[in-house]
Amino acid sequence: MLVERNRILTETIQRLMRRGAEARLTKIVSKVHAADLPSVFSSLSASNQRKLFQLIRDPEKKGFVISELDEDVALNIIEDLSIAGLAEMIENMPSDDGVAFLRMLPQHKADAVLGMMEKTESEEVEGLLRYKDDTAGSIMIPDFIALQENMPAKSVIESLQSKEYLDVEMPFYVYVVDEYERLVGVSSLRQLVVVPPSTPLREFMVRDVISVTTDMDQEEVARIVARYNFLAVPVVDEEAKMVGVVTVDDIIDVIREEATEDILKMAGVGEEFVETKSIVRSTRIRLPWLFASFLGGIVAIFIIGYFEESLKQVSYLALFIPVIMGMGGNIGIQSSTIVVRGIATGRINVRHLWSVVSKELAIGIILGIFYGVLLGCLVRLQYSMDALAISVAIGVLSSMTVAALVGSFMPMIFARMHIDPAVATGPFVTSSIDILSVLIYFQVATILLGI
Amino acid sequence: MLVERNRILTETIQRLMRRGAEARLTKIVSKVHAADLPSVFSSLSASNQRKLFQLIRDPEKKGFVISELDEDVALNIIEDLSIAGLAEMIENMPSDDGVAFLRMLPQHKADAVLGMMEKTESEEVEGLLRYKDDTAGSIMIPDFIALQENMPAKSVIESLQSKEYLDVEMPFYVYVVDEYERLVGVSSLRQLVVVPPSTPLREFMVRDVISVTTDMDQEEVARIVARYNFLAVPVVDEEAKMVGVVTVDDIIDVIREEATEDILKMAGVGEEFVETKSIVRSTRIRLPWLFASFLGGIVAIFIIGYFEESLKQVSYLALFIPVIMGMGGNIGIQSSTIVVRGIATGRINVRHLWSVVSKELAIGIILGIFYGVLLGCLVRLQYSMDALAISVAIGVLSSMTVAALVGSFMPMIFARMHIDPAVATGPFVTSSIDILSVLIYFQVATILLGI
Predict the structure, then answer these.
(1) B interface test, pick of A294, A356, A365 with most B CB neighbours within 10 Å
(2) Most CB atoms within 10 A, among A28, A296, A400, B295?
């Protein structure tokens, strides 16, 4: 449905842009749901992106669109905008998006924009800018409803309708704080309307409130929201004072981003999603990762070079390098993927090192025996050389066993050392497997073939 | 925080189980948040899992825990339970979870359980069982609030407090339907309390409601909820009649599951998350996937075998097989990962085939030239053979170029043919790259070295 909706909207807008039908474009842009616009922008040329953006009249819509665009598209569009225009736009964004947007700008420009903003708005944003990227503090919204515990349900409902709270973006819960603004309870809107109107919050609030701290990693916050099915989770500072809420819509973005990051890191494509149109940038991101694989290849050259005499005598040996490397490489990726994703989703406990590794090892041995024997039989049939067949079989078995071992062990160890395990897969694991496979295979063959 | 919380709870429970302190266990289990229990279960032995579950008294808690457990743990636990016990448990689950649970049971057992359930409950569950797995119908909840458009805000609020709607799990929105139960509008709870009490729904409801159909794939539903920041999305049947809602907490589960599935499929570990403790099952899942890689290896044997004479004359040639295969394999994984994830997140449009593939191709060529020249120079220095150095350089260049091409082209084509592109990566892409790399390398070398 979305794909179809995107296609129709994009095609209509492209057609109107070609015709220069500005009046109609302005009308369409004002009628369409803001969330439908970002994907249209990424299909337009850079100059059309700027032109279309100028036609958005509503500053809130502008802010929403900018905050949802890929960084390179956003940076392209804002080149045209004045400092005053940027300031107005950020004032109309939820403050967490405003912060993310300001972080994208060069320092001097960000400072200039902050200087132009209304004081209350810029103070709020500057307050959030203090928190490190990817922490609860950086994705929280500082607007929430916090009331005292003796307030009766009826007055709470009246407060909700007051001007003070009209700005609160997603008021799912009413938080209850004590005189020091420390969080002591929570009530859902639902509970408010089902209790008798005179009941004070104290009597129906939930006291065991789960909260997160401003410096907690956003991935951990996401896990908490997902586990307890929260719509929002309160954020407290080091003095247990409530300072904001993280809402479920931002958590969805975090979960998608983190999954994408993990996938890309495993493939050694860095943390950046390379749907930037820049080939140079993509190349620069991938180059160093491939270097690990290159170094592995160089080591393999020396290993095989060391066995050159054997190779001269039995040139058949070279034929089996690809299959031995391939089988090891593939099962290694399987093991490391299972482990990396298991750790990320919390299904694998990092402390269970040996049970995880020994399971993978067992699978590696079983599959290694299966494919080793299979290949050994084929080689025996084709070349009628027992020693060669056995060498090749052992080569596959040892390569697959080592691969399962390395592929599961490395991410577990990395995770224990608090290094992101997703980085441990990809070129790094593959290279070690390549080197070990080739080494064991040639060593075994040299011994068995008596060369 | 969660990890620490899990650890303490798990250790406490394990200690008490060793001591057989049932009374204390029962108390802890009743006090702890239901969402904290599933991860404890997966750390216990099978018999302790069953014992601990018996100690949960609250049927709602039982249902919640069972629905969050891994399938093998859940199946182990329910072996002990009577049909009546199962029926009571499902009655206390949200109906979408009840459906998922029933799908796990063997047909005859599921039928028996349905027979024991209260009629209204079993009808609701049976209604949902009709929908195919992984569709909006299978994850929706049939409880929602739907009112007529002439009802004033005040009466709407009173209805919310009425007995009829007390069951509704997450009443974020009030839906407005016409006389044929067709969806015509929506209002948030928020809007209800800020308009004057006598305003009828018609005057403040949003008319442009985005809804999904019962047969829509859950991944598409997730994209819609994520794009529009919904807390729930209404589900309509083929006659546009509203039949349920999908809530954001289920969407979070869908997003996490789909990301995991994609990652595992790319590595050729099937759709199942193999944190089952069964080595046999894991082996069976991986075996066929490795067969693609095995076949690729066999083909490589014949290719290299075909060039055996060259290899006998210049045994050096074998030294460079690993580096050429490795560089191709790794850049191939990078390209396919970028494309597969790009398609999954909607950042890559499947119709832009050539722009995506040509970008990857350009990156492959640039990186291929870089690493080809680098390796060529090293080989020239070490072996003083120009033709060998050039052959190796061309080998790396062509392998990386082909890999980037195949790695991006295949998932795009699969996606266009409506085959899951995640399946196209892993062993399948790697094998084709291995074969092509070896073939081109030996062909070029044979010509250049004049053998």
Answers:
(1) A294
(2) A400
What residues of B are in contact with residue A332 (Cβ under 8 Å)? none
8 Å CB contact between B113 and B217: no
- Please name the residue that has the structure tokens 């299909």: A43
A194-208 tens-digit pLDDT? 788 899 999 999 888
Alpha carbon of B137: minimum distance to chain A alpha carbons (Å): 16
Q: Which residues are registered as beta bridge partners of A186?
A: A175, A206
Select the residue of B172, B300, B337 nearest A322 (Cβ to Cβ). Answer: B300
DSSP assignment string, A15-43:
HHHHHT-HHHHHHHHHHS-GGGHHHHHTT
B171, B297, B351 ranked by CB distance to A323: nearest: B297
- Closest chain B C-alpha to A378 CA, distance in angstroms: 9
Per residue in A331-388, pLDDT (tens digit) is 998 899 888 888 887 778 888 889 889 999 999 999 999 999 999 999 999 988 899 9
Q: By 3-state DSSP, what share of chain B in percent is helix, strand and coil, each rounded to 5?
A: 70, 10, 25
H or E segment at A216? Answer: none
pLDDT on residue A50: 92
B445 Cβ partners below 8 Å, 6+ apart?
A: B307, B310, B314, B317, B388, B391, B392, B395, B451
Which of these, A13, A1, A68, lies nearest to A40 by C-alpha position?
Answer: A13
Task: Judge contact between A379 and A389, C-beta under 8 A.
Answer: yes
pLDDT, one tens digit per residue, over B362-401 is 999 999 999 999 999 999 999 888 999 999 999 999 999 9
Q: Which of A212, A327, A438 sits opposite B322 (nearest CB)?
A: A438
Q: How far is CA B201 from CA A171, A259, A333, B194, B243, in A?
A: 20, 40, 56, 12, 20
Q: Which two tokens stand for residue B348?
A: 């890559």
Judging contacts by C-beta atoms under 8 Å, the chain A residues touching residue B267 are: 333-334, 337-338
Would you call A326 and B296 a contact, using CB atoms and an 8 Å cutoff?
yes
Q: How distant is the Cα of B395 from the closest Cα of chain A, in angstroms? A: 13
Provide the shortest C-alpha distance from residue A55 to chain B (in Å).
22
pTM for the complete prediction?
A: 0.81
Query: Residue B298: closest CA among chain A residues belongs to which residue?
Result: A323
Pair of tokens at residue A395: 């080569």
Q: What is the Cα gyration radius of chain B?
A: 30
Q: Give the phi and the psi of residue B132 in degrees, each rounded to 5.
A: -70, 150
Q: Which residue of B has its CA nearest to A427?
A: B330
Question: Which residue matches tokens 């729904």?
Answer: B201
Tell me how far apart the alpha carbons of residues A441 and A323 are, in angstroms, rounded to a whole number. Answer: 11
Q: What structural domains and CATH numbers belong to chain B?
A: 2-133 (1.25.60.10), 146-252 (3.10.580.10), 279-448 (1.10.357.20)
d(CA A328, CA A401): 8
Q: How far apart are the first and last CA of chain A?
A: 65
Q: Do B160 and A308 touch (CB under 8 A)?
A: no
Better-predicted residue by pLDDT, B195 or A440: A440
Q: Is A223 strand, coil or helix?
A: helix
Tell me the two tokens of residue A128.
């959030």
Comparing CB atoms, the residue among A225, A251, A430 nearest residue B326 is A430
Q: Nearest chain A Cα to B65, which residue? A: A227
Per-residue pLDDT tens digits for B197-223: 899 999 999 888 999 999 999 989 999
Segments in B307-352 forming alpha helices (H):
308-313, 321-345
In A, which residues are within 8 Å of B274 by CB distance? Answer: 338
Q: Say whether B366 and A318 touch across the interface (CB within 8 A).
A: no
